[in-house]
Amino acid sequence: MADDVGQDKRKQHRARQSGVKADKKKLKTKKDANQKEPELTARQRNPKAFAINSAQRAERNFRRKEDLTAKKQHIPVVDQTPDEPPPVLIAVVGPPKVGKTTLINNLIKSFTRTNVTEIRGPITIVTSKKRRITLLECNNDINSMIDVAKCADLVLLLCDASYGFEMEIFEFLNICQVHGMPKIMGVLTHLDMIKNTKQLRKRKKELKHRFWTEVYDGAKLFYLSGLLHGEYLRNEIKNLGRFISVMKFRPLQWRGAHSYLLVDRMEDVTNTDTVRRNPKCDREVVLYGYVRGVPLKQEHMVHIAGLGDARIDELSVIPDPCPLPGTEKKRSLLEKERLLYAPMSGVGGIVYDKDAVYIELQGSHSHKEKTAEATEQEALVSKLIDKKSTMDEQIEQQEFRLFSDAAPIKSKDFKSDDEASGSDDEAEADDSGLDAASSDEEDEFAAKDWRGESSDEEQDAEQDSEDASSGDEEYQSLTDMKGGDEESDESDDEESRILASNMSWKTNLAQKAQDAFLQRHSESRNLMRIVYGVYNQSERNKQEADEQGGDSDEELGGLFRVASKQQTELQKDKDIRDKEERCGFEYQGDATRDWLSDENKLLIKNCFVTGKWKASEDAENLLKLDDMSDNDSEVYGDFEDLETGAQHSGKPKNDDDAEKEVAPESADASLGKRRMTRVEEENLTKTELMAKKMKLKAKFDAEYDNSGEKGEEEGRITGDHGFYDDLKAEAQKQSELNKSEFAHLDNELRIQIEGYRAGLYVRLGFNNLPAEFVDNFDASYPVLVGALNMTEENVGYVNCKVKKHRWYKKILKTGDPLIVSMGWRRFQTVAIYAKVEDNFRQRYLKYTPNHVTCSMTFWGPITPQNTGFLALQTVRQDQEEMKRLGFRIAATGCVTELDKSSQIMKKLKLVGHPFKIYKNTAFVKDMFNSSLEVAKFEGAKIKTVSGIRGQIKKAHHTPEGSYRATFEDKILLSDIVFCRTWFTVDVPRFYAPVTTLLLPPAEKSQWQGMKTLGQLKRERAIKNEAQPDSMYTEITRKPKIFRPLVIPKALQRALPYKDKPKLGPENPRTALERVAVINSPYEQKVSKMMKMIETNYKDKRFRQRKETQQRMKKFKATKRAEEASKMKRQKELRKKVSRAISKVRNKNNN
Amino acid sequence: MPPVAQEGNCLIYRGSNFLKQRLVLSCLSGKPVKITQIRSEDEQAPGLREYEISLIRLLDKLTNGTKIELNPAGTSVMFSPGLLHGGQLQHDCCVQRGIGYYLDVLIALGPFCKMPLQCNLRGVTNSKDSPSVDHIKGAALSLLKRFILVDEGLELRVVRRGVAPLGGGEIFFGCPVRKSLRAIQFQQQGMVKRIRGTVYACKVSPAMANRTVEVAKGCMLKFLPDVYIYTDQNRGKMSGNSPGFGICLVAETTDGVCFATDCISNTQEEAQTPSIPEDLGKEVAMRLLDEIYRGGCCDSSYQWLAALFMALGQKHVSKFLTGALSTYTVHFLQHLRDFFSVTFKLENPEAEDDEDDERGAQKVLMTCVGIGYTNISKRVI
């Protein structure tokens, strides 16, 4: 696009003619001239220097190089820009008072040399021979900022350099990042406020680097150094203009899949009477704009940002109000081609003529003519006022519209009145018939026409005359040729058949019918008609008119005909309506041909590999070619000449072929044609065959040789990027095909197949828009109409990946309303946050975590996965709120999954208490409320606090909700039983589009949807009672009193005596006195004896022990004495030795 | 058969014919559809048939959040589709129609599910009224493969055969999911290079199968030497509940296009005379030749599938060569226009310069711009 601007030819480098460098160069060239082989490269001169010394290093080099190239590669995208692209949408964004309007004014002035007094709404201007731009000013409302970020191609981000970047700028950058980054160019203004140059330079650098961290390193930042007479310097504006007009744009994902348009003109065409009767009635509104993105289709729903979804009731192309200049060769634009189109900005009434668009500029020249027109206009207006006194604001608009319309208004008919005055375009005259006619009538016709596949037969006669007149569309014209063809084609075949005589085609039993069917369903002339009926608008209109005319003119005959036709169609419809659905090709009886007979065999012989191959594929042919090329190598030597020569000679030959083919086809026999062409095939001349061969060879070379040779020349090993190159080539091919495929079709059919492609200026009619949209229309708020693709008009649960913005000061709470901007829409919804666990369970979160992504689910419009979105808690322009929050974007993320049900789980612990325990079985109450609930949980795992695991078995009758459970061990009555389950959290089904466009201008930035619970409580000063459970209270613990240990008797018996509980009193001192025992004399004697023995024994043991002690004492004493004497000796010895040593040392020292 | 009316998003149709088409397109487009006056003229049995109810049930299993409303007489049905879910499915198909009737739906919807489809269908594997399982395996899967590129996970297996009227057969169908389909240009049908076939005989003498093969092969050998027909003789549990035999032939071309036809013996219930294997063999051969004569880059029974995938492709130009359009395809194209507002350009292909031999009947070149359909059910990480 560099050559868009004619003068933008880069200046060539001019080599120095004198000086040291020039001398050196001269010397060198002289030397080079003396050399024999001047074109030797460094590698050739000194191959050793380029040899591979280290395999490892070579490998590393290679890998590095490949890494770098791989980094640069992107998945090839098919280029979708049409031949005549829509104007580039340039949005001027920035905080208030930075000079947005001044900049737009100056840009317009520099491009078109016109002053625009008031800037409202988009302004389209022609900037160069191939480029138009639409300038759009974005006001300081976050809603507008979002919509602008969604549609702008280029954003001029204005910033007051003396103040620095403001929060709005960062917010806007963030919005852009989420919705697919458009090109962003920073513009610094108010640079003249900084007087100190050093300070200025520093400031610039500072701001530049800050800007780069936000956008990307090296992003363009433009400086507008100051104002002169209230305008920016002309040179700087001119430079900015140049930058703009050579800017290239990369395709964005969302916009590459959706069509959209920015409305640059809005009109209310509601019947004035209905408006008078009910000012709040739904309005019929017409919106105008350039289609952008992908082709737009009428049947798709659209979303009007800030208003809601709407269905397009009428869509038509109208002539471009701001067309690109013609294609004549000239360097720059003529003065009259520097068009400006700004219907909202008060730049003037637009007058449409049949073939031209006049734009009235409020310049000095228009004042003179105004007088005459003004009187006329006033007269009209006064007339209107006389008639209908209650019309309020409508009058103004009509006045505006009527501005230069010469046609007087008929006050009788409001509808036609509106049409004539309101829709202001005679260019649409051909459509107006359709507009006027009621739409259901039209539908009826459409329906009728594509209902019957055989209707064409009947229509034949009727349409012959029409078709003769409108013979240009080949698809339309169902000529009577067809019938004739059928007859002649089939007659020879059919004669032999027995069936042929008595079969009409409706019974469809014969071969003839089958063939006729085949032909009907494969001949292109009527195929489109069979499938789609009368699909062409103009054709349909004509037919409609014809029909109506017929009704009135031929009285009975016409009516009769229509009735019978309808009847047959109804019959046809009924016939197929309830038939069994079969996808196969229908066979009626034994309708297949006998393919084994010779003449039939010929028909399909070539469908098999055993038949005749195409010349390019035939092995024999190819071999022949090979031989030829081997034989005469001189042909091989300079094939280029030969090839071109052959091509030239080949072309006329082919033309002949075509002619020959056409001729026999129209005559009749397909067989004859085949024979002709086969003769041709044999007659393929040697040169022709050679040419083919060479073509193949060249292709082969291109594939395999070139890359290798190049690599060798470079002296480096290059990687194989064949796969990537193939992908790129494929994308390129597809793009070319997309452009070329329908280029030759007539416009109407093209629109049918392709949709309204980008770059067309269209008029969108909506039937039921709220009255507030028209009443509160403010041109400074952009109206963005975005088309919705399949299923995007539906709502469902949207699951996203989301991260709270790190600059947002609060965390987000589950269940709080949130305003989300996603796709084209802005809407309020209630989000539930969750964390995706390792087993993909979504676990409920009450608040968003900081610094990590979490999952978010809400009920909202179905939007394709990976679409970015941003969330705001409020869109109100509230200074205090802004100050408190600082940054309004609460979270950003992207869509991951869409569903019709949500699976967010919350952990739930059910608590119960056992009330009866039998061994390992226990009956538990308080966990559930009814036996039904229990039934749902049968088999569930439970656990006691002490860790004994168990299972729910079955419901128990009393108390209600109790159940029987088994445990792995006996539990205690004091145990608490838990059941751990998951509980699905419902996502509230709340989805409300943000309807800012419906608010009155003063409140446009004050949209308030659902409030958060916290907000409501604060407003109404409601304070919840704290839960007693959540209160902090003193914990008092009673000492635990244990019950005495009871050991079962059986166990006691089994225990050893030592561990047996003794039956005696626990404290013998306090025990009761024992009962006196009186022994028998013998026993007394025995016991006395025993006592005596015992006493004796005790005495003996006492004495022995005493003796032993004395002995031990004595022994220890002697031992100690021995030890002491020994120690003493040793001490003395040690003393002696030490003394000797010290003496020696002293001696040595001395 | 254009829609009678349109209420908001909902399309309203009349009559039971093309119920399957409408439901499939409704599922894909997300537009609810209402069908009224279903066999209302039929005094004996007005309303939906059992097999249609079974189809609706299958769709209900396949999707999440579908709402179906039937009026008491069954003459009107309102279908508002949910999102395609897929995953593991079991379905007992009604024996009034073959499994092919249900399998068509799965083939069309399978690539757009949330989870890869793994479905077991039980019922009549081979019947006269819908393409047999072998036919689908031969013709439809090769076509599907062309659009989804990588066929990992694409599988159609006949677990057990069961012929009409009692069925008792079972098949397994697995289909991978795709994010989007690519636009394709497929204009070369190639030449038929091999013919394969399957003959099956359930609860009848194996001789029947062999006799069928002999004749069918005899016919085909007159055109091509590479003919091979497998015999699938089943007995006991594997042979379903009723006796019968049949044959399916598949012709494959050098460009990988498959044409298939099938024929099946008459059932006992039908008043007609029992089928003679030789006649059956001849008939199937003739039909295959007929199919080859019509040509195109897909089987004539699956032109609709090609059209569907073209329309759902990315927003680029797709081109596809077919034989003469069948009535079913014509209606399908109309329905495509209703649901997706896609209009096809239909024309005869230009004769190539070096193309000098007529290969079969006149072909039709379908051209359209896809709507850029993406699989909205699939989860991205």
Automatic annotation (TrEMBL), chain A:
GO terms for molecular function: ATP binding; GTP binding; GTPase activity; U3 snoRNA binding. The keyword GTP-binding applies. It catalyses: GTP + H2O = GDP + phosphate + H(+). GO terms for biological process: endonucleolytic cleavage of tricistronic rRNA transcript (SSU-rRNA, 5.8S rRNA, LSU-rRNA); maturation of SSU-rRNA from tricistronic rRNA transcript (SSU-rRNA, 5.8S rRNA, LSU-rRNA). GO terms for cellular component: 90S preribosome; nucleoplasm; small-subunit processome. Residues 419-444, 455-475, 486-495, 546-556 have a biased composition (Acidic residues). Residues 30-42, 445-454, 652-663 have a biased composition (Basic and acidic residues). Residues 86-250 form the Bms1-type G domain. PROSITE patterns: G_BMS1. Pfam families: AARP2CN, RIBIOP_C. Residues 1127-1150 have a biased composition (Basic residues). It comes from the Eukaryota. SMART domains: AARP2CN, DUF663. Its main location: nucleus. Residues 1-49, 411-502, 539-558, 643-682, 1101-1150 are annotated as: Disordered. Keywords: ATP-binding, GTP-binding, Hydrolase, Nucleotide-binding, Nucleus, Phosphoprotein, Ribosome biogenesis. It is found in: Nucleus, Nucleolus. Belongs to the TRAFAC class translation factor GTPase superfamily. Bms1-like GTPase family. BMS1 subfamily. This is CG7728. It comes from Drosophila busckii.
TrEMBL record, chain B:
Keywords: Nucleus, Ribosome biogenesis. GO terms for biological process: endonucleolytic cleavage of tricistronic rRNA transcript (SSU-rRNA, 5.8S rRNA, LSU-rRNA). The keyword Transferase does not apply. It is found in: Nucleus, Nucleolus. Residues 188-292 form the RNA 3'-terminal phosphate cyclase insert domain. The keyword Nucleus applies. Residues 13-345 form the RNA 3'-terminal phosphate cyclase domain. PANTHER family: RNA 3' TERMINAL PHOSPHATE CYCLASE, RNA 3'-TERMINAL PHOSPHATE CYCLASE-LIKE PROTEIN. This is Rtc1.
